[in-house]
């Protein structure tokens, strides 16, 4: 019944109907929750949205596992759980402070590490009695400090996951993990500080609600540069420019991964409202959820129709990437109040994937899972869309942001990839690639019974 309803009931029991009518007449039209209640709901939103985004790590693992060949499946699974762990550690050690502490319109934050709970929260947790003064010192921040850290951390892990799928089946495990250390600890936080940390792009008005560019195109740029420097898989492209398909081994698993990503995206975009302490925030978050879902659906349908028209057959993998591209595209502006617009944005994202994937193949950029097309191409589109009639951003400023972040990621990623190539090396040898990375690097197989016949129980 709510606070106002309970108050009316109590008043009516004491003074009759006239008292209740008088109370209704004198009560303000807008009833606000207390500061502590808002603190609880805001913190709750960060935590729940964060573990939804964390679940996307499972989605990437399943999607990539389904789109590689069986001989590389265990390696992909290992990379995904390892990169999530490294991302969390690096963002704790240095990344969060570099992205958010003391940016003040500049280019990066503090190099101070080991981000921790606030002094006010420690005082409240350690007090014998939760006094109003201690509670007020905590709740005045609006949310628990570490709930925000958790929500931001799972985003950086997403950026790293994008790179994993593109470079699958031929990159060594340890060089890839070293790149993840640099990406999650330094590269992602530095460019992220330019907008979300209150840096120079934020002051120019660059708009990216949940990270079409700041998260997805960053992973896409790193993946693109890595794919060019690493080179394609052996036998992928013929000398005459022909493309030799290397189909994934488990499309049901890839489909499951896509659905998990779709689910996690509600936390990714919805949580980026960054508050749930008012009716306004709750309404805005609901709009974001609906727009996210519509964009993904639009991406799937567009990819299905286009593959039927272009190839005369419907391609499941294109449909899966169409969903992801639709989600990536709407991520820059899911707060749009016109739901049909989000459907259009997502559909264009799904259509772009259908043309981008074969284009990269023509350029001999071997992207095993289509991540460059789904995350980089669709991410650029989504960010530009905010500057068109699809959003409230300035088009020129959106272009400046895309170019600045793209240039930063291309240059820095190239330096790291080349340094790794000319020191410890990036690729497994030809024998290891032919054998599969599971045996070559892990000494195990994801499906050992496939090669040795069925075993009786």
| Tally of strands | 0
| End-to-end Cα distance | 59 Å
Q: What's the number of structural domains?
A: 2
Shape: globular
Determine the CATH topology of the largest domain. Ammonium transporter fold
H/E element string? HHHHHHHHHHHHHHHHHHH
CATH class of the largest domain: Mainly Alpha
The amount of helix comes to: over 70%
Stretches where pLDDT is under 50 for at least 5 consecutive residues are: 1-31, 452-457
The fraction of residues assigned to DSSP E strands is under 5%
Class inferred from helices and paired strands: mainly alpha
Task: Write down the overall mean pLDDT.
Answer: 91
Textual characterization of the structure:
The protein starts with a helix and ends in a 5-residue tail after the last helix. Residues 1-31 and 452-457 have low confidence and may be disordered. The chain is globular, with a radius of gyration of 25 Å. Helix 10 packs antiparallel against helix 15 (371-386), helix 13 (316-330) crosses helix 14 and helix 14 packs across helix 15 (371-386). It has 19 helices and no strands. Helix content is 70%, strand content 0%. It has 2 domains: 1-31, no CATH class; 35-449, Ammonium transporter fold (Orthogonal Bundle), CATH 1.10.3430.10. The protein has helices at residues 2-15, 17-26, 35-67, 73-100, 119-126, 132-139, 145-166, 173-193, 200-204, 212-230, 251-270, 279-311, 316-330, 339-362, 371-386, 395-421, 430-435, 437-442, 448-452. The protein is an all-alpha fold.
